[in-house]
């Protein structure tokens, strides 16, 4: 469940597993059916039947304070019984199943069917490590300030955070009781990891293995899919990238872009203030930004793997899919995080010396131009970015994940 940043790594696994001779079913929102079928994978719908292009819904889910609670309490938990039924249909006849985040009936599926079960995490935040503390969206500045505190402090803080949301679990507990399963089960934090295999599908460039990760966990690196094999650059964009100095590239991924406010208009102004070339990837079916000219161009979409390596800097929201592609490109970042794992991903990039951060509510042309001027004038950002690129490139990613899946199949 989630944005393309959540779907694409699973598609990468599905395509590689199919190449190895396995049959693959992708169980997700109806709105992704066409993309999955067009790639030759089998599709089974998963409720709640949400539209990933619903701008109003995305705006609510991307709120830094209320967004995570809205997703869990208003979208996912009321639908756990429907999700369970759809997942049962999807796993019928299967030998193993994998689930992403917020697919809360997963453990119940494994328990009631006996099917082999593998869990996945796409970002360090989702590991909930006290050894490598996270930056949470509700008060990112505070959590960043608390990071140097001892492990015992973060363990206590984590327990307190779990206690504050204990009432959220009532619909889930009722669902488990109806199945005859133990209702004392935490699908969000501690009990979401499969005892058979967990895949940490992100790079050590932003999060290294920790002593308190669940066992067994294999860190694979990023698993990339971005339509680069089926999509070519528009000739106008290809020509722009190849003729002139590397541009600044502005994007907000596939979800935050639907609540972009004046991000792209202000970004065009920032490029003008700097006298720099720029590419604005403003999103499919979104409003064309203002302020364009021969040096500042806008396109709805382009495969990130084809455009990021040609950028001087990428300005983005720090969704983990986008972040992974920027790290793979080896270029600096300016990050405007929205919600969920984005503030943590952003903070990790800044601590690694490859990025600066501007808060979403503070983003404007002057601040963006000032931050970009600093980044572009200091070669250390690019040097650091190239070092992280080397880490990302060295990780087997999709291959390692599929090897691990086949290992579970053989048991």
Can you describe this structure?
The protein is of the alpha/beta class and 411 residues long. It has two domains: 4-179 and 188-222 and 395-410, Glycogen Phosphorylase B (Rossmann fold); 235-393, Glycogen Phosphorylase B (Rossmann fold, 3-Layer(aba) Sandwich). It is 43% helix and 11% strand. It is built from 17 helices and twelve strands. The chain has helices at 4-19, 33-38, 55-61, 67-76, 80-91, 106-113, 140-146, 151-164, 170-178, 235-242, 263-274, 304-307, 320-329, 342-351, 365-377, 379-394, 398-410, and strands at residues 25-28, 42-45, 96-99, 116-121, 198-200, 217-219, 248-251, 278-281, 296-299, 313-316, 333-335, 355-357. The strands form three sheets. It has a six-stranded parallel sheet with strand order 9-8-7-10-11-12, with helices on both faces. A four-stranded parallel sheet has the order 3-4-5-6, with helices on both faces. Strands 1-2 form a two-stranded parallel sheet. Helix 13 (320-329) links the parallel strand 10 (313-316) and strand 11 (333-335). Helix 1 crosses helix 17, helix 11 packs across helix 15 (365-377) and helix 13 (320-329) packs across helix 16 (379-394). The longest helix is centred in the first third of the chain and has 16 residues, at 4-19. The chain is globular and about 65 Å long. The model has no long low-confidence stretch (mean pLDDT 95).
Enter the CATH topology name of the largest domain.
Answer: Rossmann fold
How many angstroms separate the termini?
28 Å
- Please state roughly what percent of the residues sit in beta strands, choosing from under 5%, 5-15%, 15-25%, 25-35%, 35-45% or over 45%: 5-15%
Structural classification? alpha/beta
């Amino acid at each position: 469940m989630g944005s393309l940043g959540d779907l694409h790594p699973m598609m990468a696994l599905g395509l590689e597993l199919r190449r190895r001779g396995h049959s693959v079913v992708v169980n997700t929102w109806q709105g992704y059916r066409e993309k999955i079928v067009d790639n030759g994978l089998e599709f089974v719908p998963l409720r709640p039947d949400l539209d990933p292009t619903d701008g109003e819904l995305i705006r609510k889910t991307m709120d830094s304070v209320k967004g995570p609670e809205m997703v869990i309490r208003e979208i996912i938990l009321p639908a756990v019984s429907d999700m369970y039924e759809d997942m049962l249909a999807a796993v019928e006849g299967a030998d193993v199943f994998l689930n992403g985040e917020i697919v809360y009936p997963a453990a119940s599926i494994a328990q009631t069917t006996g099917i082999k079960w593998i869990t996945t995490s796409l970002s360090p935040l989702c590991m909930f490590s006290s050894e490598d503390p996270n930056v949470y969206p509700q008060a990112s500045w505070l959590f960043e300030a608390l990071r140097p505190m001892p492990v015992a402090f973060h363990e206590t803080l984590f327990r307190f955070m779990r206690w504050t949301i204990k009432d959220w679990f009532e619909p889930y507990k009722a669902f488990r009781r109806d199945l005859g399963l133990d209702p004392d089960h935490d699908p969000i934090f501690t009990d979401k990891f499969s005892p058979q295999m967990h895949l940490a599908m992100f790079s050590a460039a932003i999060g290294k293995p920790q002593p308190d990760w669940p066992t067994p966990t294999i860190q694979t690196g990023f698993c990339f899919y971005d339509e680069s094999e089926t999509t070519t650059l528009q000739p106008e964009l290809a020509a722009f990238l190849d003729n002139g100095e590397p541009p600044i590239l502005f994007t907000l991924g596939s979800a935050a872009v639907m609540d972009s406010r004046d991000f792209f208009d202000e970004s065009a102004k920032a490029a003008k203030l700097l006298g720099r070339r720029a590419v604005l990837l403003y999103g499919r079916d979104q409003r064309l930004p203002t302020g364009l000219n021969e040096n500042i161009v806008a396109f709805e979409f382009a495969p990130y793997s084809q455009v990021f390596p040609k950028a001087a800097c990428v300005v983005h929201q720090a969704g983990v899919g986008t972040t992974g592609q920027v790290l793979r490109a080896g270029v600096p970042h300016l990050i405007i995080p929205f919600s969920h794992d984005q503030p943590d991903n952003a903070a990790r990039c800044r601590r690694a010396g490859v990025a600066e951060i501007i808060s979403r509510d503070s983003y404007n042309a002057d601040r963006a131009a000032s931050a970009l001027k600093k980044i572009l004038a200091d070669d250390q950002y690019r040097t650091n970015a190239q070092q992280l690129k080397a880490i990302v490139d060295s990780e087997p990613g999709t291959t390692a994940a599929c090897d691990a899946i086949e290992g579970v199949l053989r048991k």
